[in-house]
Amino acid sequence: MTVRKFRIRIEDQWFEVEAEEVSDESSQQPTRVDPRPVPGPSSPNPPLAAMVPSKGEVAITAPLPGTILAINVRVGERVLRGQVLMILEAMKMENEITAHQSGEVHQIMVDKGQSVATGDPLLTLV
Amino acid sequence: MDNNLPTPNPKILELHRRLERIHAMGGTDRVERQHRQNKLSARERIAQLVDPDSFEEIGAHIESRATQLGMDKAVAPADGVVTGVGRIDGRVVYVFAQDFTVLGGSLGEMHAAKIQRIQDLALKSGVPIIGLNDSGGARIQEGVDALNGYGEIFKRNTWASGVIPQITVIMGPSAGGAVYSPALTDLIIMVRGTGQMFITGPDVIKSVTGESVDQDALGGADSQLRKSGVAHLACADDREALVSVRRLLSYLPANHVDEPPVLDSGDPHDRIGWSLARIIPEDSAKPYDVKEVIETLVDTGTFFELQAGYADNVVIGLGRMGGRSVGIVANQPRVLAGTLDINASDKLARFVRFCDAFNLAMVTLVDTPGYLPGTQQEFGGIIRHGAKVLYAYAEAVVPKVTVILRKAYGGAYLAMCSRSVGADWVLAWPSAEIAVMGPEGAAKIIFRDAIGKAENPDEERQRRTEDYRQRFAHPYVAAAHGHVDAVIDPEHTRHHVIRALMALYNKREDRPSRRHGNIPL
C-alpha cells in the first residue's frame, strides 16, 4: 500500500495531491487532497507552452510516430487545403503531412530530423 | 336533367376524405416549415426514392391507440410514419419514411408496429428495406409501449441482417435509442446540415461532462462519417441522399441467395491500364494514391467509395468489373503509410462481411507495411480488432481475388486476403515485396551477430539489408512456393482480375454448419 505524491496543474494553479493505490485488502481510507495551491515552476517549460495552440489556431499533429524528413513550408506562408506541409518518415514510408484546411503557417514546432510521437503538434495554421 | 349520373357513394367519399387528411400529413404549415429547413416531407421523399407511381402504401389508416397525457386529442395522420412498398429500377423495395410534421415523427406503439410490419414483409419477400429517418425519438406519452416498439424493430433488424440489404437514411434527428435501428442496418447515409445521430444530446453531455458541443459537431453527417465511422456516406441534401440509395441498390442483390444485377457498360475487359506501370514510385518509401489504381481497374466510373474520410488508410467501396458487382478493398499508402490500425480493421472487416453476405466478389489490393505500432493501438486492442480482418476474409465464401501491388509483410500480408486465409486467386505486380517483414527489420534480426561484430556495423547492416532485399523483397519466392498464382504486368491487371472473377463466378464453398461463428468483436 503505497501513497504517491502528484503535482497537478489546473489552469495556472499547481496542486499537490497524494494518491493511494487501493487494492482489495487495503483500507478504504479516502485519498488526502491538499487543496492549497503550491507554487509552480517559476516559468512554464517554453516548448511545451508553445505547443498549445491558442484560439483561432489549428494544430496539425503527427498521425503516426516517426521522424521529420522535410519541412516544406515557412512561418507566415499561405497554404492551401491539401498542400503537403511536411514529410514524416514512419513505417519506412515518406508520409505526406497535408493541410486539412487553408490558412497561414503560424508556428512550426518541430525541426528536421526530430522524432515525434502520435498526436504531437507539428505546426499550427491560422 | 342528367339522371344517369350515379349519385356519389357516401362511403367512398368518406374514404377519399380520410385519405386526403392522411396525405396532408401534419398540415400545410408544418410541411412548409420542413421545406424551409431544406427538408422534403416524408411523402415527397418516398416519391423521389422510388420509380414514378410505383408506391403502394400499407397501413395509411393506422392511428395511435394511446389515450393518456393528451394523446386522445392528438391528431396523427398515419401515426407519423409512411410505410409501403415500391420499386427502384423496377426492383421491389420496402420503404418507411418517418414524418416529422406529425408529432415530430416521434415513435409510438403503432408507428413502430407499422415499421415492424414492413420489416416482416421485406424479410419474407427477400427484398431490401429502406428507412428514411426523421424523428424526435420515442413518443414519451406512449411510455414503455414506445420503448417496446424500438426493441421489436431492433430484433427484426438483427434477424434481417445478412438476409436482405437494409439501408438507412438519416434526414433529421435520430437520438437516443432511435440510433440503434440504423446502427444495426448495413449502410447509413446522412444528410449534411439536417441529419444528426447521437446517444445523448449536447445538453446532457454538458451537464454530465461539462463539454460544450453543438448538435451538428456532435452528431452531424461529417462527424459520424469522419470521426466515429458510424455513417457510410454524407450527402448535401435529401435528393442527393435518395439518389445515392438508388445507386447503392444497383450494386446489390435483393437478398443473400440472389445474384447482384449485371450491368455491362461495354468497357473492354482487356482495356490496358497505361498509368499502372508508372504509378508505383521506384523508391518503395514513396506514397501514391491507391484510388487511382482502383479507378483504372474497374469499369469506368463505377467505383463508389464508402466511409471515405474515416480510417482512410484503407479504402473500401463498390464497383463493377466486366459488368459484375465487386467489393473493393485497398490499403492506402498515402494515409498512415497504409498500415492497418484499429479503425481500419473494423472498417475493412465489416465491409468484407457485408460483401460476403450479399454475394459480392472481393477484389483486394495490397500495399501495407504492417499493423500500426504503438501503445495506443495495443491498449486499444489492435489484436482483437486486427483479428476481425483475418476472420472476415477466412469466413467469406464469395470469390476472392487478391492483387499484391507492393508491400505485403508479416501478419498484415496474411490479413489482406492472402492465399493462406482463403484467397481464391492471388496476383502480384513485379513491384510486390512479399516477406515476413521489411528488409531493414529482417536483416537486423537475422544478421545481428554479424552486424554486431563488424568493424563498421552501420555499413554491415546496410550491406546485409541490401542483400536481403535482393533475395527476398520481390514476388518470386512467394510465386515459386505457390502463394502467388501469377506475377503480372500492371498494365494488364484489369484483364487478369476479370478473367479470375469470371472463372470463379460459380464458385461454391461451404463452412462447417454451426449456429454462428464467434468473431472477435
Sheet/helix structural class of chain B: alpha/beta
Strand content of chain B: 15-25%
The CATH superfamily of the largest domain in chain A turns out to be RNA polymerase II/Efflux pump adaptor protein, barrel-sandwich hybrid domain
Structure classification of chain A: mainly beta
Low-confidence stretches of chain B: none
Shape of chain A: extended
**Low-pLDDT segments of chain A:** 24-51
Q: What letter string, H or E per element, gives the SSE order of chain A?
A: EEEHEEEEEEEE
Number of alpha- plus pi-helical segments of chain A: 1
Q: Characterize the quaternary organization of these chains.
A: heterodimer
What's the structural domain tally of chain B? Answer: 3
Largest sheet of chain B, in brief, is: 8 strands, mixed
Task: Provide a descriptive summary of the structure in words.
The complex is a heterodimer of chains A (126) and B (521). Chain A has 126 residues and is mostly beta strands. Chain A has one helix and eleven strands; from the N terminus they run βββαββββββββ. Chain A has two domains: 3-42, no CATH class; 52-125, Beta Barrel (OB fold (Dihydrolipoamide Acetyltransferase, E2P)). In chain A, strand 1 (3-10) and strand 2 (13-20) form a beta hairpin. Chain A is extended. Mean pLDDT of chain A is 76; it is low at 24-51. By secondary structure, chain B is an alpha/beta fold. Chain B has helices at 10-23, 28-36, 42-49, 109-125, 143-160, 180-184, 202-209, 215-219, 221-227, 238-251, 276-279, 290-297, 342-357, 375-379, 382-395, 410-415, 439-446, 448-453, 457-472, 476-480, 493-503, and strands at residues 56-57, 81-88, 91-98, 129-133, 166-170, 173-175, 187-191, 196-198, 233-235, 304-306, 314-321, 324-331, 361-368, 400-409, 425-428, 433-435, 486-487. In chain B, the strands form three sheets. In chain B, strands 10, 11, 12, 13, 14, 15, 16 and 17 form an eight-stranded mixed sheet that branches. A seven-stranded mixed sheet of chain B has the order 1-2-3-4-5-7-9, sandwiched between helices. A two-stranded parallel ribbon of chain B has the order 6-8. Chain B is elongated and about 110 Å long. The relative contact order of chain B is 0.07. Chains A and B meet through strand 8 of A and loops of B.
